[in-house]
Design goal:
single chain, mainly beta, five-stranded antiparallel β-sheet, SH3 domain, SH3_domain
């Protein structure tokens, strides 16, 4: 009798990522994005990116072609076409 290869019923993510429910009043996140190119911020409203950086996306509205995100505790705008969305956290 084969059991058909029972899969883990929890379907957990590799690496033991734990999804904590957002606390009330927390900034809604749109997931994360990975920088494909370097981008040098021109003012304090923008984020400096380095290729390979992972940015937490906070908003995709407000400036056409720009997203608002957070990296290393800094919040600012960056060009959406400089990043690729990272879906790995959704398993």
């Amino acid at each position: 009798g084969s059991d058909g290869g029972v899969l883990d019923s929890h379907g957990g993510c590799p690496g033991g990522l734990v999804h904590v429910p957002p606390t009330p009043g927390a900034v809604r996140s749109f997931g994360s994005a990975k920088a494909r190119y370097d981008f040098c911020a021109r003012d304090r409203m923008e984020l400096t990116l380095r290729e390979g950086d992972i940015i937490r996306v906070l908003s995709k509205k407000g400036r056409p072609g720009w997203w608002k995100g957070e990296i290393y505790g800094q919040v600012g705008w960056f060009p959406a076409n400089y990043v690729e969305e990272d879906y790995s956290e959704y398993c």
